[in-house]
């Protein structure tokens, strides 16, 4: 089948896996994650990126959309993993002389379409609550000038919405619209708390929404009503978010959780085939690469995974589509081909030294915790 | 860690995996599953049981509580798999001269405490909607006479409750109480729709409730409020239900889904450790075998699983308990020991010929579908 497209993640965060669990988003960010991120080095992000990319490959993901910093390290890791990626620099208001925006443009000028065309660069205005209108307008201007897509967090929590309405008298979606963000090709992660008017705006500008079921549940952010979004004609893709808030990067887990929870009130919601599309072709549409990948079709690039069905959990084989969504185990993926190149061969990494990556990731996190 | 205890399943149903998905419980039972079950043979149940037990072993389950028919075939399969099990014959009203009850007693007299003490026999009055009060009273009498525990379905759907109130003017819990069922040691599967009064009754009689998150979501039955049940002092265990409504038998998936969905409103709900207890020691309490198994303690029997942590999804290792609940992949289980005997050795079955089991399961289902 086509490889999975993880349309929202932060691969540089995998060192924080299981570091802080069972707390709310704002507590988690302010008191746990951000203090640790202040001490993160380029090298840490390099090993975290390789670690994440290993985990994604072994669970069948061939492409991901990332937002973080030290993204040149993530791109360096991509040289080894050979994955396809859309990379954005997280842009937040603590940005003297717009140095972060310049860094993001610099990434574009250096790496757009590099590594045999596997790399695309997007702008990453983090969220409404970490930016302001002037900053967003500036980003929108840059986006138009360079024709760069945009990757944002949108209405992830109710608090984000409430604060935004207090601050601007508008929803996050309305703020982004006013600042011209949606006039550019945009991926909006989460979208858990969207009004009907928000959905109309997103639909009008053809913004893709990315569902991150595990992360949203784990941080008590809520659960996106997928059927409502799809019925508005909006392209709905799927993501794992980071392994700090999930706490893994397996799209197969997201597929099963998204489908099961969506059936809460109606078993016909998010059928097996719908949820597989979210995890593949809809991701390609979100990233603007659906002419190249996201499905197995003549003329498309070979981003292909082979799933082993010769195991008890796939026996008997009554319905392949149901089987993939409801019965597949995370590591049933046996072979992964990206851009025509075999990168995972009978459950062995072709290009990655996985023992070295794990060793250095552990070492990096030990050092990070000791660092003042 | 201690092996998982799957406290509610129907191992004889695994041939129906992925046969009918994305429909509601009553439609699924009446129009899909029951017509197929009418054609099921003893041999089919034998292969289905072995298939299920293989899948459970490879995902770390060492004990299960089963309700189905042709249970002598499931017990025969247990001779090969060496799993620990509590077996009950599903008892429903189409039971001329109480032949089914007699069959259940027969199982008890033949197999109770057999296979080195790994087998216990329970009575299986299926549910309120498939029995009546006289039948339930008779089963309660038998339970007392032989000191046999009881395994039931309870308030799985809202329709079950509504119909019961129409029929008896009582909730299913009230009906079971009136018929004396709860005076015996009882496992109640599902319990999705329980009133405060129901919970008080279950608490008073020390009835264990078994949460089956995937099955309940998939059939749109609802989602059990685990925290509410636990706060009433009720022992809450975990089950997969059958692979026909799940569609797999991995307790690791249930652990992750139960914990994530319970956090919907509060991230402190069902923390990593709470959910691991549900899947182990609480299951042992439900089955009345917590003096023998369910935790790793001196003097207990060796029902032990070894989980491989040397992989990207467990790196770095910040918190073992969180890691087990949120980051473990279904097939990270490398070794399984049941009753002191190694049954799964570095991901290879010691006693089971898995290729033969899969081949015969496929064949059995092909023949079943062709059968008039």
TrEMBL record, chains A, B:
Keyword Glycosyltransferase: no
Oxidoreductase in keyword set: no
Signal peptide boundaries: none
Record keywords: Hydrolase, Metal-binding, Zinc
Family annotation (InterPro entries): Amidohydro-rel, Metal-dep_hydrolase_composite, Metal_Hydrolase, MTA/SAH_deaminase
Molecular-function GO terms, alphabetical: deaminase activity; hydrolase activity, acting on carbon-nitrogen (but not peptide) bonds, in cyclic amidines; metal ion binding
Residue span(s) of domain Amidohydrolase-related: 1-343
PANTHER family associated with the record: AMIDOHYDROLASE-RELATED DOMAIN-CONTAINING PROTEIN (PTHR43794:SF11), AMINOHYDROLASE SSNA-RELATED (PTHR43794)
Name assigned to this protein: Amidohydrolase family protein
Organism encoding this protein: Anaerococcus hydrogenalis ACS-025-V-Sch4
Upper classification of the organism: Bacteria, Bacillati, Bacillota, Tissierellia, Tissierellales
């Amino acid at each position: 089948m086509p490889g999975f497209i993880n349309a929202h993640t932060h691969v540089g965060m995998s060192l924080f896996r299981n570091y802080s669990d069972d707390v709310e988003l704002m507590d988690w960010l302010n008191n746990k994650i951000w203090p640790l991120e202040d001490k993160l080095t380029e090298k840490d992000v390099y090993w975290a990126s390789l670690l994440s990319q290993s985990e994604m490959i072994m669970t069948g993901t061939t492409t991901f959309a990332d937002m973080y910093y030290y993204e040149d390290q993530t791109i360096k890791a991509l040289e080894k993993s050979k994955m396809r990626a859309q990379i954005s620099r997280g842009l937040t208001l603590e940005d003297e002389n717009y140095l972060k925006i310049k860094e993001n443009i610099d990434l574009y000028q250096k790496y757009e379409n590099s590594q045999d065309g596997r790399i695309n660069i997007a702008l990453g205005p983090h969220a409404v609550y970490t930016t302001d209108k002037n900053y967003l307008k500036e980003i929108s201007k840059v986006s138009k000038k360079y024709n760069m897509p945009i990757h944002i967090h949108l209405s992830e929590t109710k608090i984000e919405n409430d604060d935004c309405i207090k601050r601007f008298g508008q929803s996050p979606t309305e703020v982004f619209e006013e600042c011209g963000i949606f006039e550019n090709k945009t991926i909006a992660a989460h979208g858990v708390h969207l009004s009907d008017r928000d959905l109309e705006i997103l639909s009008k500008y053809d913004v893709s929404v990315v569902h991150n079921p595990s992360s949203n549940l784990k941080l008590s952010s809520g659960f996106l009503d997928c059927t409502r979004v799809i019925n508005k004609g909006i392209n709905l893709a799927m993501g794992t978010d980071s392994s700090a808030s999930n706490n893994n990067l397996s799209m197969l887990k997201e597929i099963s959780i998204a489908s099961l929870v969506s059936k809460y009130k109606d078993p016909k919601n998010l059928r097996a085939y719908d949820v597989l599309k979210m995890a593949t072709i809809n991701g390609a549409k979100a990233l603007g690469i659906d002419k190249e990948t996201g499905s197995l079709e003549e003329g498309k690039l070979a981003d292909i995974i082979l799933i082993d069905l010769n195991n008890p959990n796939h026996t008997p084989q009554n319905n392949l589509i149901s089987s993939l969504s409801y019965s597949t185990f995370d590591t049933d993926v046996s072979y992964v081909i990206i851009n025509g190149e075999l990168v995972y061969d009978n459950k062995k990494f072709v290009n990655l030294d996985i023992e070295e990556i794990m060793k250095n990731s552990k070492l990096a996190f030990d050092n990070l915790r000791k660092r003042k």
